[in-house]
Write a structure and sequence with these properties.
The chain folds into 2 domains: about 10-215, BirA Bifunctional Protein, domain 2 (2-Layer Sandwich), CATH 3.30.930; about 220-270, Roll (SH3 type barrels). The strands form 2 sheets. Strands 1-2-3-7-6-5-4 form a 7-stranded mixed sheet, with helices on both faces. Strands 8, 9, 10, 11, 12 and 13 form a 6-stranded antiparallel sheet that branches. The chain has about 280 residues and is of the alpha+beta class. The termini are far apart. Helices cover about 25% and strands about 30% of the residues. The chain has helices spanning about 10-15, 35-40, 90-105, 110-115, 175-180, 185-205, 210-215, and strands at about 25-30, 50-55, 75-80, 120-125, 125-130, 135-145, 150-160, 225-230, 230-235, 240-245, 250-255, 260, 265-270. Helix 3 packs across helix 6. The chain has 7 helices and 13 strands. It binds adenosine-5'-triphosphate. Adenosine-5'-triphosphate binds near residues 66, 67, 134 and 265.
Length: about 280
């Protein structure tokens, strides 16, 4: 398939949000969409500016890891927010991940219903998986002016029409691979932004139910299994209890101790038979 450029006119016609993406910036090529919105003069940035690039030359993940995406085939974009308060930023990432999952579920409602599958799920704190394979990653960065939060940049890389991945990304998948045909990026982005706007509103209103809803999207939530933390295997089986109000991840050990994780790399593998 040839690399089609993102159709901004079509996207603008489809977009059905109140504020998110009304200010939409398209770049054919850039180094990193997060960097672009980080460096943009603050007077130019609105709460809800979205910047999308068809080619990202230096896409990043956490800890300076690389985000690799074939040009013109995926969705690589950054949402710029001016939330005012510096609190609850981890929850903002989780709420955005929830919005992304909700947008995918809304878009693929029929296909997923036919398959009778659970759909897409969250790997705490910033990845979206489908049947254990990574389909999207989120990178949240913030800019402070003194101790005042000036802006938050939420970068999203979603694998849409990429059909093959380099050998070291054998844990990656795309919507094309899942659903077996090329997917319309403009419509998809419209659905995603509508749902991120919805989850942002819930985050902003301190909606307590949001935690429950996010927990239900977490891969392995409320199940027993094995956990690896920063590459080290926990000796006993644990139950994944989901997140708390700060967005931290909780597990229960088999000796009834609750452990809380904030920034650690946590890999959970569910046991097939529950006990
Ligand atoms: P991991 O995916 O190994 O659990 P992580 O979630 O901590 O790591 P992130 O910082 O979110 O990692 O994303 C960067 C990592 O994602 C890279 O190190 C690479 O393994 C993987 N990656 C890069 N590009 C893609 C892609 N297009 N699809 C899926 N995974 C990717």
């Amino acid at each position: 398939m040839k690399n089609d450029l993102f159709d901004t006119n079509r996207f603008r016609q489809i977009l059905d949000t109140e504020w998110l993406g009304s200010d939409f910036i398209y770049r054919k090529e850039t180094t990193s969409t997060n960097n672009d919105l980080k460096c943009m003069p603050i007077e130019r940035l609105s709460h809800g500016t979205v910047l999308l690039a068809d080619t990202q030359l230096e896409g990043r993940g956490q800890y300076q890891r690389k985000w690799l995406a074939e040009p013109g085939k995926n969705l690589t974009f950054t949402v710029g927010l001016i939330p005012g308060q510096p609190e609850r930023l981890p929850m903002l990432t989780l709420s955005t991940a929830f919005g992304l999952i909700r947008g995918l579920h809304a878009f693929y409602h029929e296909e997923l219903a036919t398959e009778g599958e659970q759909g897409f799920c969250l790997k705490w704190p910033n990845d979206i998986l489908r049947k254990g394979k990574k389909i999207a990653g989120i990178l949240t960065e913030s800019v402070f002016n003194g101790n005042k939060l000036e802006r938050v940049l939420i970068g999203i890389g979603l694998n849409v029409n990429q059909e093959s991945f380099p050998p070291d990304l054998d844990h990656a998948t795309s919507l094309h691979r899942i659903f077996g045909s090329p997917q319309p990026r403009e419509e998809l982005l419209g659905s995603i932004l509508k749902n991120i706007e919805y989850s942002y509103r819930r985050w902003h209103q301190h909606d307590k139910e949001l935690i429950k809803d996010i927990n239900q999207t977490i891969d392995g939530f409320a199940s027993w299994g094995e956990v690896e933390v920063n590459g080290e295997q926990f000796p006993k089986k644990v139950k994944l209890l989901g997140i708390n109000e700060s967005g931290h991840l909780l597990i229960l050990t088999s000796d009834f101790e609750v452990k809380t994780f904030t920034y650690e790399q946590v890999k959970f593998r569910r046991h097939h038979r529950e006990s």
